[in-house]
Predict the structure of M14 family metallocarboxypeptidase.
Amino acid sequence: MTIPTRYPIGTLGEPWDEDARNQWRARQERQRGYDADIVSRIRALAEHYDEIAYGQLDYGDDAYALYALRSRAFDPKLPAALVTGGVHGYETSGVMGVLDFLETRAARYAGKVNLLAVPCVSPWAYERVSRWNHDAIDPNRSFHANSPAREAAALMALVGTTQAGFLLHIDLHETTDSDEREFRPALAARDGKAFEPGEVPDGFYLVDDSANPQPAFQQAVIAAVAQVTHIAPPDAKGEIIGSPIVAQGVIAYPLAELGLCTSITGARYTTITEVYPDSPRTTPEECVRAQVAALCAGLDYAIAHP
């Protein structure tokens, strides 16, 4: 993997101005279709779930309707579970994992939990295989009051309308070689900082909430996923992406403090999944299966330990 010494946009040491953001935006070419890949599958699932259009993004000439799917027999006496993918649009197995779960496994949870599923939070970024949205903002650092990311604001508004308490929120992500090759160098350039290369973990790991740790829940998910794909080992410092491991395949962040998606429900059980699709030890299909396994294990544990 080749790591750039300097990102080709902006002035070294200075945060981006609007001209630099426009230069970055011009580099983001559409590579795949939100309607064809995702909306078509959501429409097919609407035979079994309530389809909710919870917002629209208008970015120049591009408009994207935002969709969620909700259990049709939504029982306010049952707890709710939120599953999200595509907060970072380029993280493909997160999007496909939510859709595969709904198509193949979700029916078994009918009558046990109210499901609210958002397969693709950031469709503009999905089409361009990008981490950021159209405004060069990372939605997954923007889940807070007065969010500058329209994707984050729309999802928070949707969650606020749900008439049930949330027991669980699982947010599906990937860590890829492009993090080091493109996205972290771009972040450093955007903010006028020096880029310091890191290490991409080879395998699956989870991010717990350091303000609400749930170690048994996290380990139940890890145990299930280990039957599908390999778990990321710590690096020589005992860390994964710069954070100390708290258990096998688990690190912890202060979710609300960082404005991460899994902070928005107040659920007892939350986790962020991370797979490494660029590993020679896995395949894109296996990564999707790992995401589905994580969702099922998380739901099974939460329902058994409400």
